Amino acid sequence: MAAMGPLSYAFAVIMAAAVLAWLASLVTRNVSFVDSLWPLFFLMAALVYAASLPAPDAGALLVLLLVCAWSLRLSLHIALRNRGAPEDHRYRRIRANHEPHFAFKSLYVVFLLQAVLAWIVSVPLLYAVDTPDGIGALHVLALCVWILGFVFEAGGDWQLQRFRARDDAAGRVLDTGLWRYTRHPNYFGDACIWWSFWLFAAANGAWWTVFSPLLMTWLLLKVSGVALLERTLAERRPGYAEYVRRTSAFLPWPPQARNSADGERP
Question: Which domain holds residue 239?
Answer without folding.
Answer: 136-266
